[in-house]
Amino acid sequence: LQAENTYRVAALGGQAPDLMRFSNDQLGSIAPIRDRGSPLLEDLRPWLSPVQREIWDPVALQSMRYEGNLLALPVSQDCVSLFYNKALFDEEDMEYPNDGWTTADMLEAAQQLTFGEQVGISIPTKDPYRWFALNSGHGGTLFTDSGVPNLDGEGSAQAMEFWLSLELEHGIVPTGTNIETMKNHFVEGRAAMIIDGPWQWPTYEKAKIDIGQALLPIVEETGLRMSPMVGFKGWSISKQSPNKAAAVALALYL
C-alpha cells in the first residue's frame, strides 16, 4: 500500500519511475486515476507480439488487465497455504501436516496441540480472504457464471459454520484473533499452525521458527481441496516514461 501511494503521488507530480511492480488488486485502484486526462500506466498490448503474449498463462495476463488494457506483465503469483511450527509437532511426537490431510485431520491435530498458552491453529476468523479457500472446498463460489455475488450459494453456509466452529465450538482459535494476532502467535512460538502467505515468510524465518509448509487440507465432507485465491504481481510502465521501449525490454527480461 505504501508503494502504491508513493507511486500515485510521484505520478501525479510528473515524477513517476519508468518501471514499477504492482499486484493485480493495486492495478484496480491505480488504473482509473487520470493525470490531465491521461492514465498513469501504459497499455502494454501494442508492445507485445502474439508470440510474446503466449509466454504467460492466460489467467495471469487477464489478472493484469483493466477495461481491456494490459497494465502489467506478470512476474509472480502467490496464495495462502498451511504453515506449521515443526518444533511444536516434534514435542508432541506428532506427524507433520501433509498434502493428503483433510479438515478433520487438521482439526484433530489442532485440538491435540491446544493447551495452556499454546494454540493448535491461529487464523483470523473475520478475514474473508482466508475463508474464501474454505468456501471453495465446500463447493461454494464467490460469483455465479453471470457475475452475480453468490455468497449465499451452495456450500457457503457450511464453510462459514466450520470456520466459526474453530473458535466458538472447539475453542482452538482464540477469540478475537486477527491477522496481526495470528502473526504474533506464530512469531512467539505459540501457534502450531496458521494459514498465511509467502509475503510473511521472511518475518517467520527472522524469528527463527522452524517452518513447514503444506497445501491447505481437503474438506472432509466434499472431498474438495481448500483452494485459495491467487494473486499476481507484474511490471507496469509509466505512461509518462520517456524510455518506454527500454522499460518494456527490462520488464520482459525480469
Automatic annotation (TrEMBL):
| A Pfam family that the UniProt record links to this protein | SBP_bac_8
Source organism of this protein record: marine metagenome
Q: Which GO terms describe its cellular component?
A: ATP-binding cassette (ABC) transporter complex, substrate-binding subunit-containing
Tell me the GO BP annotations in alphabetical order: maltodextrin transmembrane transport; maltose transport; transmembrane transport
Coiled coil is among the record's keywords: no
In terms of InterPro entries, this protein maps to: SBP (IPR006059), SBP_1_CS (IPR006061)
Q: What is this protein called?
A: Extracellular solute-binding protein
Keywords for the protein's UniProt record, in alphabetical order = Signal, Transport
The molecular function terms in GO held by this entry are: maltose binding
Family according to the record: Belongs to the bacterial solute-binding protein 1 family.
